[in-house]
């Protein structure tokens, strides 16, 4: 996969869009004994394309008829809203601080069956909010409404947020930028997730030069 934004919307028949559909299928069949509904998407460092992956994964889930919500939990550097050209105004932060309803942070996207919950303003103490029972309970409640809940988080080696959120989720996807991130950083990210017993559903090799590496 490379760093195109909503390629699954703009070029649905492209090779990269098919790669996202393969990721969708692999997630759906990753566990025979447990239905995977909540998915954390993270990376080892910034700039690897985790938000792009999160957005496109949401699109391919929704296009298959699954009621899907994307939740931007990157309180430090929210960017998921940019993928859909939606302003980041009222958001999840207001709900967690008790100043707003969660429904105020949710907006429809241009993709059928796909909603997005934005952050709003940046938080002063993100880890405290993420570790709150209020967020954990919210994610559980959303399972009654949505088939898939996909959560964008900060890079796992930069903040503990992804580790905390992965304990609320059924599994996580680790995004690794090809030829950009050192192997040691990727292995550290994997180890940090495993430390909290997160189930790693798969690793996405992003920003891969498809022409250079051939079709397969």
Automatic annotation (TrEMBL):
Family statement drawn from the similarity comment of this UniProt entry: Belongs to the CpsD/CapB family.
Keyword Flavoprotein assigned: no
Protein's name in the database: non-specific protein-tyrosine kinase
A Pfam family annotated for this UniProt entry: ParA
Residues of the signal peptide: none
GO cellular component: plasma membrane
EC number: 2.7.10.2
